Amino acid sequence: MMVGARKWASRRKVVFIGDLNSGKTSLISALVSADSISGLLLPPVYDVCTFTTEVNRRVVEMELWDTYAQRYCNDTRMIAYYGSVVVVLCFAIDAPQSFRTIRERWYPEILHFVLGAPILLVGCKSDIRLLPNPPVSPGRGELITPNQGWILADEVGAVEYLECSATQRDSIAMLRDALGRVVMSCGQAAPSNRADKRNCTIV
Ligand SMILES: Nc1nc2c(ncn2[C@@H]2O[C@H](COP(=O)(O)OP(=O)(O)OP(=O)(O)O)[C@@H](O)[C@H]2O)c(=O)[nH]1
Ligand SMILES: [Mg+2]
User: Fold this and answer.
1) What molecular functions are annotated in GO for this chain (predicted)?
2) What is the DSSP string of 26-82?
């Protein structure tokens, strides 16, 4: 379909995965809201929302699927995985446990359910790095460094690694552009058991 000089590409599914409190919902809220978000972010009203961006004058429409880490939500997460063409894998830079879980839980799960979907690795809550005395909760340890993020991105074969702040909207535009490019480079929603591996081209 053509609208003016812009072409519309069909809607594609993107799933957001990561630990409890890693910042998935806030990231989605920041992506879909035009204005800056300050203070506490609202809990999700919808678990799926549509989001439109433009890449090379092509309108890319996505379905952003929010998920929950809890075991009792495994079934609904499976539904979210089904047919997703891109995975946004989130951890919070102030929660090393959420970083470790990427390796131990989320990456194996992704390989199992959406093998071949490109991964965007996102270090959420990057604003915390800029605080004079970053609050490190008991048992949490040090903040995750950008270098650690890049190493993990390499390990999981992520096509991009970004650090974002949903509250400050830092790098949200970069995430939107990266998502648009990656989604655009992928084919139509595919069945979750497809065997081809990372066959997308980044445009
Ligand atoms: N400082 C800071 N806090 C954030 C940011 N994004 C989210 N938070 C806070 O982190 C907490 C968790 O954020 P959510 O977006 O609900 O995280 P989630 O991954 O959706 O959590 P679950 O749905 O419970 O799995 C909330 O208290 C947010 O206000 C951010 O960019 N910076
Ligand atoms: Mg959430």
Assistant:
1) GTP binding; GTPase activity
2) HHHHHHH-SS---SSPPPPS-SEEEEEEEETTEEEEEEEE----SGGGHHHHHHHHT
